[in-house]
Amino acid sequence: MAKKSIAKNYAYNLIYQVLTLILPLITTPYISRVLGGEGIGIYGYTYSIASYFILFGSLGVALYGQREIAYAQENVEKRMKTFVEIIIFRFITMFIATLVYIFFFTLNGEYAIYYRILAFELLAAAVDISWFFQGLEEFKKTVIRNIAVRLISVTLIFVFVNNKQDLVKFVWIYSLADFIGNLSLWIYLPKYFKGQKIKNITFYKHIVPIFLLFIPQISNQIYNNLDKTMIGKIISDKTEVGYYEQAQKVIRLLITVVTSLGVVMIPKMASTFASGDKEKVKNYLKQSFNFVFFLSFPLIFGIISISKEFVPIFFGKGYDKAVILINIISPIILLIGIANVIGTQYLLPTKKQKEYTFSVTIGLIANFFLNLVLINLWDSVGASIATVVSQLIVDLLQIRNIKNEVSFIQLLKLSTKYFISGIIMFIACSIVKIFIVNDIVLSMIVQIMVGVIVYFGMLFILKDKFLFMFLNRGKEIVKSKLKR
Fold first, then answer.
1. Is the pLDDT of residue 65 over 90?
2. How many domains does the chain have?
3. Contact 466, 291 (CB under 8 A)
4. Residue 196 and residue 207: Cα distance in Å, rounded?
């Protein structure tokens, strides 16, 4: 039953996470041509500034709240009390962050109009309660919410954003979509707290543990926003931010596929840890690593193989540099996948926050100084290198914390089949490139088809247990549907 729950919730969360990226990605070929590299760069830069205030206002509440709700899954009274205390604290901190943001960025300046609109992103963060449903291991509601809101926003973009002067409309659409989407989840709350009374609200007791999770939350900003902010500050040409933004969009989408299991496993790990079943925790940990390796290697080798064809098809002319950036950044698909398993799925649910905080703090410091040096030398290429190196540092530090559960040698053994299969897949795709030269669309399509066949074919030959587990699971689903 537990396995079924994990598989189901993973499917829901994968849809939820991919949707938040895939729909903007669908609009990207259109937006790239309409707004141009400068417009994309301005949005990427201003949003990166706003996101810091979201981060400081949120203070790690999402992960902490998800974990605490998971601990209180079966206790309705405690669940309600925890929710109310955490949401009060979030309102206070987001209110303070919003006031500071408005004072420093929205009153005047070259990009003040964009900063004013992006204030709605801070409001969206204040009313975000998706962590509550994730803690209850109920992902269906968030998926339905996102599908409706995102589809509407994509439609509005195609209707109202038609030229470079429509950047303001573009920012409005995305900001309001996030705000309305997060607000819509509140309509589901009453049924979870029906008949319950709130007693002895003491939100201040959550302050210390939330602050302990605050620094780890910065790790997401390192890889999502710090690079773009520093490129924008160091280099006057905002087009460099645009190249980096587009490359990151592609890689982040692939990362989402790999890390979506993490959100599902946090409440699962937390409840299992709370029950004292250490062996089950270890088993979940190994399964998660297997899953990351299973998906990461084909995605890395695959995107490197097709990037030269993909970028001009997807983004249009003038984004050639994004090909180089995608190839450099691609290893973080694996690195962030590993960090997600160790940090998000294991260290946080098992209350090893100090170890997690130490690793991401060192990563943050390394990322900042590497950016400072490498962006001055090689612009967005330097930022890409800094991203990969700093994430590798985080991974190495975190691997030390699981040596009693999973050794480094075990990790290498788990990854060997997938690495070999990925290399052979890459060689096969490279051969396709030699024979199909003049048609980049056909070349990309054939490479993808050949890559999928070769990768899974190799795993079948190597008798990979993880692949056969999926195949057997698929057979069971088909049989159950045929019986109906």
1. no
2. 1
3. yes
4. 24
Q: Report the distance separating Cα 408 and Cα 127, nearest Å.
A: 41
CA distance 407 to 272: 21
Taking alpha carbons only, the member of 240, 216, 245, 215 closest to residue 48 is 245
Q: Torsion angle, CA of 466/467/472/474, rounded to 10 degrees?
A: 120
Rounded Cα distance between 429 and 302, Å, is 8
Q: Of how many residues is the chain composed?
A: 484
Nearest in space to 65 (alpha carbons), one of 190, 209, 246, 178: 209
The DSSP H or E segment spanning 263 is: helix 239-275
Q: What pLDDT, in 10s, does the model give residues 135-171? A: 777 767 777 777 788 788 888 989 999 888 899 999 9
Radius of gyration for the alpha carbons in the chain, expressed in angstroms and rounded: 22
Q: Is residue 451 part of a domain?
A: no
Domain of residue 169: give its range. 2-406
Phi, psi (5° rounding) for residue 350? -95, 15
Do 284 and 268 meet the contact criterion of CB atoms below 8 Å apart? yes
For residue 138, what are the CA distances in angstroms to 6, 260, 461? 11, 14, 37
